[in-house]
Write a structure and sequence with these properties.
With 245 residues, the chain is mainly beta. Strands 2, 3, 4, 5, 6, 8, 9, 10 and 11 form a 9-stranded antiparallel beta sheet that branches. Strands 1-7 form a two-stranded antiparallel ribbon. The radius of gyration is 17 Å and the shape is globular. The two termini are 17 Å apart.
Length: 245
């Protein structure tokens, strides 16, 4: 079977098999959901024996969502798609679940019944709708920290206020080669290796009544979201071309 690596041209691919939901056309008026701040946290733990550990902090005011993620153990030098999934049982899959991937690895669609569809793409810049679910050139690279403030739909805001949803990080080096490769193809796009899209870690969102993530606690990092294009050295994503070597 042909060995597959992650091509740069796949960066903007959109795949319905991801369980991606279309962007909602509802009003984005903050007043429709009230102006109170909702804080959530997620303790994100490994899937597929990835060794990834991560924490996400979310703060929602009206329809404005601020997100911060700190991670360790992600494949260095590689982009990692990350999303808020909502639906299914709003839970992460059992990490011992046997999937359809490499040596029983869980692939993205294996866990759709657990964490549901992509509702928010946690990109570093530009669109954050499900349409950017696999916009590889706009996701953090390796363990780069993430922080961004953006607007979500009324439907997403309502789900978050109810404590529904999970944060999922993708990209696993199953064979230890140091890049996304291998014969197993992605369940989202046959032009991609499965390693590029398999879930690396998942954490269920929980309401934080103590408000441990306030806008103040984010400091100036969210005020500088204009510089997010350089978060995770995404300016060097041209190096993705070498992943096919």
């Amino acid at each position: 079977m042909t060995r597959r690596t992650l091509p740069v041209l796949a960066a903007t691919a959109l795949f319905s098999s991801l369980g991606v939901a279309p962007a909602m056309a509802g009003s984005l008026s903050a007043g429709s959901l009230g102006g109170d701040t909702t804080n959530l946290t997620a303790n994100i733990t490994e899937l597929n024996d990835s060794g990834v550990e991560s924490t996400a902090w979310l703060s929602l005011e009206g329809n404005e969502l601020s997100v911060r993620i700190e991670s360790s153990g992600l494949l260095a030098g590689a982009p990692h798609a990350q999303h808020i999934h909502i639906g299914g049982t709003n839970q992460c899959p059992d990490p011992t679940q046997v999937g359809t991937g490499f040596e029983g690895a869980i692939r993205t669609t294996d866990a759709i019944d657990s964490y549901g569809a992509v509702r928010v793409s946690l990109t570093t810049e530009g669109d954050t709708s499900p349409a950017s679910a696999l916009a590889v050139d706009r996701y953090p690279v390796g363990d780069a920290p993430y922080s961004r403030t953006f607007t979500v739909t009324d439907e997403v805001a309502a789900s978050l206020r109810a404590g529904e949803g999970s944060v999922v990080l993708h990209g696993v080096d199953h064979n230890g080669s140091g890049e996304y490769d291998g014969d197993q193809v992605s369940d989202l796009n046959p032009d991609l290796p499965s390693e590029a899209t398999d879930p690396a870690a998942c954490g269920e969102l929980n309401l934080d009544s103590m408000g441990s993530l306030s806008m103040g606690s984010l400091g100036g990092s969210l005020g500088s979201t204009g510089s997010l294009g350089s978060t995770g050295s995404l300016g060097s994503t041209g190096s993705l071309g070498s992943m096919g070597s």
